[in-house]
Write a structure and sequence with these properties.
MFS_trans_sf, Growth Hormone, Chain: A, 76% helix, transmembrane helix, MFS transporter, MFS_dom, 426 residues, membrane, mainly alpha
């Protein structure tokens, strides 16, 4: 079909597996993501409580805001990925995305308690994330050997998780030191985001692929440089199956804020402890992201992705019960961390090797766009069920959705992985 499976030869490197995986670029990109996630998670950790418990936004309203927060990246991911491939400037496009997100933190200071203004600034932040994510992941995918991509993404996501772990703690400290002044959180978040942009400019190196000189037998010639060519990635059975599975699983994945709000309202703990839920999730993610990435390379990335969604199913089931106490909070949070460790990065590593080098960023962006649009639908639906029925029925609906999606996604991902393996070794 359309996608190339020719691998670019890479020189052998000494120093063992760790040095082979943790190249300078992977480490630098990890540092940028770590610092940026401290900034982002400071805001993300407090926003559900700020909007729902502080500004009394309805669950449907929060579902729309949360869905847009995720879904607004749909178009920008694709545009960012395509522009990065066209200009062969992944670092530049990623830097623009990081810069936009930093400006959004500053913008939150100017809009006060306006729901519309806050939503607009969150949208700008997500546009920045959408622009930067695919170029960043594409840089990772060409900065490590193909057979160690799961481990490379795992290392990156581990460093990313360190930032996500620290962010809510920093927010908690700032709120405690300033008497619950949210403006102070936004100021500190902006300063840290600027540091991330500086690190990207100084230490991340642009990497360009060496295009294959010929296509595999039976593959059509490429018409370089057209947007339709990028969309033609979906003609390839392997990538199309991964894309469909990602959309299907995204439709049954709700935003983190809903999980946190369910736990807070069920257990009725003080609002100022709300950021600790994100701390717990990211602590589990931090511990597991690296090992799970290595495991994915060994037993099959598609198996690990599906295993992560089994953990998500258990999270939703746990939200339906009336259990009380911190143990009833820790279990779903731990399972939620397992879900993220097994899916975030692993799915990108699964897709990366089947994408042609000149459209790898665009292909990753297509995959992430499908996920973002699916998250928009799931967040609005979850919020509506909660608002007009109950949070328990909303959790049951999410659990049933995962249970239905799993076998279909397993079939799609297994076939895609098998085809990729056959073509690579042929």
């Amino acid at each position: 079909m359309y996608l190339s499976t020719v691998r670019t030869p890479r020189p052998k490197t000494g120093g063992g597996t760790l040095r082979r995986v943790v190249t300078g670029n992977v480490l630098a990109l990890g540092l940028v993501s770590m610092v940026t996630d401290v900034s982002s998670e400071m805001v993300t950790a407090i926003m559900p409580a700020y909007l729902v418990l502080g500004l009394h936004l309805s669950m449907v309203g929060y579902g729309v805001v949360d869905g847009l927060y995720q879904g607004i990246t749909a178009v920008t991911r694709l545009i960012g990925g395509y522009v990065a491939d066209r200009l062969r400037a992944r670092k530049l496009v990623a830097g623009m995305g990081y810069g936009l997100s930093a400006l959004a933190k500053l913008g939150l200071l100017t809009v006060g308690r306006s729901i519309g203004g806050i939503s607009a600034m969150l949208a700008v932040d997500r546009i920045g994330k959408g622009v930067r994510t695919a170029p960043r992941d594409a840089l990772i995918s060409v900065s490590a050997p193909p057979d160690a991509l799961g481990a490379a993404f795992g290392v990156h996501r581990t460093m990313d998780a360190i930032g996500a772990f620290l962010g809510p703690l920093v927010a908690l400290l700032v709120l405690s030191a300033t008497g619950q002044a949210y403006d102070a959180v936004f100021v500190v978040s902006f300063c840290i985001a600027v540091l991330g942009v500086i690190l990207l400019a100084l230490f991340v190196r642009e990497r360009t692929d060496t295009l294959p000189t010929k296509e595999r037998p039976g593959e059509p010639l490429r018409a370089h440089g057209t947007f339709l060519e990028a969309l033609n990635l979906l003609r390839d059975n392997r990538f199309r199956r991964i894309q469909l599975a990602a959309i299907l699983l995204g439709l049954v994945t709700v935003g983190d804020g809903f999980v946190y709000l369910t736990l807070q309202q069920r257990e009725d703990f003080p609002v100022h402890w709300f950021p600790l839920l994100a701390v717990g999730l990211n602590l589990v993610y931090l511990a597991l992201a690296g090992p799970v990435g290595v495991l994915a390379d060994r037993i099959g990335r598609w198996r690990v992705v599906l295993g992560g969604h089994v953990a998500l199913l258990l999270v939703y089931v746990s939200l339906t019960g009336g259990a009380a106490g911190w143990f009833a909070v820790l279990i779903p949070i731990a399972l939620y961390g397992v879900f993220y460790a097994a899916t975030d990065g692993v799915l990108m590593a699964l897709a990366g090797p089947v994408l042609p080098t000149h459209l790898r960023t665009t292909g990753i962006a297509l995959l992430q766009t499908g996920q973002a649009l699916a998250y928009l639908v799931s967040s609005v639906a979850f919020g509506a069920i909660w608002q007009f029925d109950s949070r328990t029925h909303a959790a049951w609906a999410a659990a049933v959705g995962v249970l239905i999606a799993l076998p279909f996604s397993a079939l799609l991902l297994r076939r895609a992985a098998h085809q990729a393996e056959v073509l690579t070794t042929s």
